[in-house]
């Protein structure tokens, strides 16, 4: 009787553990079976590299959206990574204890603020600022890049801080012993030791930026064309899906699912490089 | 000792970065609060939503329902699977590797992809329509890896001597898990669950095409509902009710701050227990 219950629960736990496998399989199956046929019907090359997206005329080229996603993400990295990296160094090695007790929960709060709030904030603060300072319509790649740079800060700070803390203190002490200052020891002895962890944080940040949807949609303009400058609007892969999913049907709907497939493949590549980097760090 | 130029520059840079980061957060929270609090009024908390009063109370109730249902699904599965990974699986088990990789994959998938999957699978294939149930299942998959990871960490932090002591007294594996290991891991698990609540409360993209946007109280588990974040998005995007959007943002922000505070409070109690 007791043995039977032990075995039963063992199997129950095992089944629970398999749920996440089932979830990934289901997501892959339904996403790919929904999107790949459309991709084939449109033509894979025409779909990925076509520059015109006009569902009304049966033209489905997502190249502008791929470019849009890349631009916005690159901009976010440009703003977010240096700031996040330096802030993480501060948190790990410069921060007074009392201040840390305030900063740490604040960074956690930043990670927890919903993307609609970030988006709304950007809509009423960043967009007008960009418009008044640089001209243009305000809803632009620049605005989205600034916002995303802000939004990926907590991710980068958390992962980088953990990576810096994982480096043996002897690296830092060695630096000091050779006569380097505190700052030089941290930057030139400790940081190189945390290299793969820092890279992993950046990769995770890229994943966040490329996958962000609602906040970007509110401020990026959403015009499906290849942008000429960073003050112009563009459309990203994620916003392409949200913009039109509400009313799309037939091939149009399948083309949107195919857009999600492309996004999913990007994310898978990013995830794999993240775990590879993390493993190398160990 | 006077430091060289580079050292002073580096010190300046890290302080500047920390100050900029904090000012951005303070600017965001302060801006929303200052502009939003004056617009909080009683009509925003009316039980009946109309397009005139754009009341957020039904959306708040929907959010609570959505959170409860998705936790009811995700928490038992997440906790049980973490128990398997930590307490049952042998080292080097292939299955554990696969579960870890899939959980990592799940936590990296953007919410819009979850939304699309939910719209295909729960809404269309299973025929649940735009409903509370479809939304809750979608959210459950989304928060599953978070609950799994935090529970795993909480279980791992329980010292092995607890388990050995329990086994030594003749308790079986099950009794050891439920009477000895789980009780000491509760704060860690709880703080993970609270973080998951925050995730559900803040989600928009995954819910628009699974739970829909009807801003009224649900009649059943199969009615379409709008959570507070989706409500906030709709108001901000329509641009007709900007003042109300500010007020809604305040409520949403305060809820998120409370949830975060609660989570770190619970986690701190875990730290003290050690």
From TrEMBL, chain A:
The answer to whether the entry has keyword Aminoacyl-tRNA synthetase is no
Task: Tell me which SUPFAM superfamilies the record gives.
Answer: MetI-like
Q: Name one GO molecular function term.
A: phosphate transmembrane transporter activity
Transmembrane portions of the chain: 12-40, 60-88, 109-129, 141-164, 185-210, 255-277
Q: How does it sit in the membrane?
A: Multi-pass membrane protein
The subcellular location is: Cell membrane
What CDD domains does this protein's entry cite? Answer: TM_PBP2 (cd06261)
Q: Which residues form the signal peptide?
A: none
Kindly state one GO CC term assigned in the UniProt record: plasma membrane
What UniProt keywords apply to this chain's record, in alphabetical order?
Answer: Cell membrane, Membrane, Phosphate transport, Transmembrane, Transmembrane helix, Transport
Domain ABC transmembrane type-1: from-to ranges? 66-274
Gene3D superfamilies per UniProt:
MetI-like (1.10.3720.10)
- Domain of life per record: Bacteria
User: What's a GO biological-process term for it?
Assistant: phosphate ion transport
Q: State the function annotated in the UniProt record.
A: Part of the binding-protein-dependent transport system for phosphate; probably responsible for the translocation of the substrate across the membrane.
Family the UniProt entry places it in: Belongs to the binding-protein-dependent transport system permease family. CysTW subfamily.
What protein name does the entry list?
Phosphate transport system permease protein
Automatic annotation (TrEMBL), chain B:
What is the annotated localization of this protein?
A: Cell membrane
What is this protein's gene name?
pstA
Q: Provide this UniProt record's keywords sorted from A to Z.
A: Cell membrane, Membrane, Transmembrane, Transmembrane helix, Transport
Tell whether Calcium is among the UniProt keywords.
Answer: no
Ranges for the ABC transmembrane type-1 domain? 60-263
Transmembrane segments annotated in the record for this chain: 12-34, 60-86, 98-122, 128-147, 180-201, 245-267
Q: How does it sit in the membrane?
A: Multi-pass membrane protein
Any one of the GO CC terms: plasma membrane
> Does this UniProt record's set of keywords contain Transport?
yes
* GO BP terms in the entry: phosphate ion transmembrane transport
Q: Which CDD domains match?
A: TM_PBP2
Highest taxon of source:
Bacteria
Q: What is its main location?
A: membrane
What is the protein's species of origin? Hominifimenecus microfluidus
Q: Where is the signal peptide?
A: none
> What Gene Ontology terms describe what this protein does at the molecular function level?
phosphate transmembrane transporter activity
* Name of this chain's protein: Phosphate transport system permease protein PstA
- What family does this belong to? Belongs to the binding-protein-dependent transport system permease family. CysTW subfamily.
